[in-house]
Amino acid sequence: xRNLVLFTSMILSFWGCSNDKDFGGLENIGWxxxxxxxxxxxxTTKSTNFIQEFKEGSMLGLQITSGTVDDLYNGxxxxxxxxxxxxxxxxxxxxxxxxxxxxxxxxxxxxxxxPYQEDINFNARQIPVKLAPNALxxxxxxxxxxxxxxxxxxxxxxxxxxxxxxxxxxxxxxxxLSKGKTGAFIISSVQVxxxxxxxxxxxxxxxxxxTGDIIGSTARSTSASTVLSLTNPVTLINEKYCDPMRLxxxxxxxxxxxxxVETLFTINGETYKFDIPANTQWEKGKNIxxx
Length: 291
Prior knowledge:
Elements: H1 2-22, E1 34-35, E2 37-43, E3 59-65, E4 82-89, E5 92-98, E6 102-103, E7 109-114, E8 127-130, E9 142-146, E10 159-166, E11 169-173, E12 185-194, E13 204-207, E14 214-216, E15 225-236, E16 245-249, E17 261-267, E18 270-275, E19 287-290
Parallel strand pairs: 2-10, 11-19
Antiparallel strand pairs: 1-6, 3-4, 3-7, 4-5, 7-9, 8-13, 9-10, 11-16, 12-15, 12-17, 13-14, 17-18
């Protein structure tokens, strides 16, 4: 009897120490609750302009819901626009949530966007998007939700794989010299914008986190343009096509006629205009090649 009491005391003492050391951060979490864990995958057209994978310091915004985007999980208001920041552990990306999301037996649906924007009036269907005048400064806006085949996300299965999609279009230009043309032709910049007075291309809009669709703002569309200034100018010397020159744009909506969107190339210090063809397919996440 004395040995049994001693053995029982040792077990209780051991459990108490383990609980204090390893589970202190979970002291406010019920036994039927688990913290949400996320991992990401970017569905992408391979290009140096589109992000291929998230790096340490990248930040996403999450909308934690019970199904539809406006139905916050368990009615918890802080689960709107949750920020998550990437950090690296043993060479792998992990995500730190603020605030931490706790799951119970109820199923959760997670929506995500990139890059994170702090906004007290956050609306998941109207996330601001902006095309920078300097093409190199335009963010690679993304949206996403559960990957196809994802199991129900709850306390029993708290890990969610988020498939992220690009919301902007990428337009690539490749030029060459016509047969018999001689001399060196140096391209120093490429600009994409509307024809004078046109409103096809927009520089600002709002992104719907559920579909990736961007509703453009026509208020400033007449001045919408973005310029790629080439740090290393491209030289055309023969009939061989040059390396692609790429810019991201907000996909235009509606029917587009020839010349509604125009491209201005600066070559040997002079400006040359090229009209984007009619019916060019400006799809989000797609690369449009023009040569």
